[in-house]
């Protein structure tokens, strides 16, 4: 990972992310505090609303309880009981009297809109403030609420608007249903159904809103979630559990929480009325307040702080990109330039722009590289002179060695009075000396192979009928250059040390192959080979200070054997570098193969 990425990651993890996490934590904590504080305040408000509703129903129950035990009301039940089904009413059954009695008693309580009295046989009588049909006995008795009315055994049961569809009700109209007992005998006289219109309910909820457009909404719901009262009159008849799907559970205790209500973030508070003793069956109040109203100015301040934080982060990022990045880029450019210098590109220079310390640093780097370039040029010149001297020394070592062997062969032929062969050997020797004495270190592969062929023809006179040779080469690479006298020492080594003890025809194979950007020269023989112990000592050193022949035995014969090979190996390494040289593969009793690897180069003189 480069420095630029490290600086950016450090900036991200130690500045941006901590600020973001801090801002998120502060915002979340503030939201939770606002939710808790306002939730507590809402709970107090809902407690006050619950008390008011309690007193409203308590007053209504008290009034109905008072008149239910009066002789006038109980007399109506006894009179109705005298009439059996399908029989005519007696003369005492005076409808006008009943109506006047009810209007002078129960209907004197203003919230009561109508009253229906049923006897046990299903006969009914009703009176009300407005004309309208009374609820038939069959409808009441078949209602799902009827069994609960009987179970209460005289205690009142309150039914909210639309809570039981079969009963029907308008907005704000509540039913009180109960069983009526005989005051003296506690026998069941029948049933009473009172319809209430609680205008007071609107006043209770309105008193806790500051204006008509308040963001606060109050819902009165039953245990199944049915909304039978909405202070804004929009959601009556709907189900609050569907409006707050997955968020509200009416079985839980009183609590406040955040939720989306009608696509608006809101604070929802649940409060159970706990007035079942009044005949109210598990009703609850749900308060829904817009979060904007709840948070108020604090939300605005938090958004302002968040905006300022993001602006600061933006400018910090700009600072990082403009200033810190510039310095990092300078360091990276300098690092890249240093790598180029390490690879040997001393023409590398850094751009000098500006007037600050970075410019002085770039100028100093350029000056240093120029100085290093000058020093390396001087070292290179000295090394070239040294390498040339070493090459001349190595060549001087090869030439006497070869001449000694050749003159020895000519001497043997002269003693044997083979003048024609002596003449041919002298002619070929002249060709060899002509190439060897040329004032060039490198010659073409074609010239090197011609030189080698002359050498082998000379050696055929010396080792007559003892070996034969083969030379193969790719014609396309014969114009490439090679250090002269590269192959001859290897062939000489094979003749003198590989074939002398054998009693079969020796074979020397020379192959020159194109190997991509390199040239491979193979010298193979079927001689005695090299033992594993001696072969293991051909450890290919990469340091030029370690001559190749030092890896051979100190034995005189082995020193002579390795002299030509080591000279060739050292010359190749000096001339072409450490990636080139000689590789030896041998199996004792089967022969040896030496591979020379050189680069593809062409001298201008070629």
UniProtKB/TrEMBL annotation:
This enzyme's EC code(s): 2.7.13.3
Subcellular location: Cell membrane
InterPro entries listed in its UniProt record: Bact_2-comp_sensor_kinase (IPR050640), dCache_1 (IPR033479), HAMP_dom (IPR003660), HATPase_C_sf (IPR036890), HATPase_dom (IPR003594), Sig_transdc_His_kin-like_C (IPR004358), Sig_transdc_His_kin_internal (IPR010559)
Pfam families, per the entry: dCache_1, HAMP, HATPase_c, His_kinase
Catalytic activity as recorded in UniProt: ATP + protein L-histidine = ADP + protein N-phospho-L-histidine
Spans through the membrane: 7-27, 304-324
Highest taxon in the source lineage: Bacteria
Domain HAMP: from-to ranges: 325-377
Main localization (coarse): membrane
PROSITE patterns, per database record: HAMP
UniProt KW DNA-binding keyword: no
Residue ranges the record marks as coiled coil: 365-399
Membrane topology: Multi-pass membrane protein
Keyword tags: Cell membrane, Coiled coil, Kinase, Membrane, Phosphoprotein, Transferase, Transmembrane, Transmembrane helix, Two-component regulatory system
Name assigned to this protein: histidine kinase
Organism encoding this protein: Paenibacillus anseongense
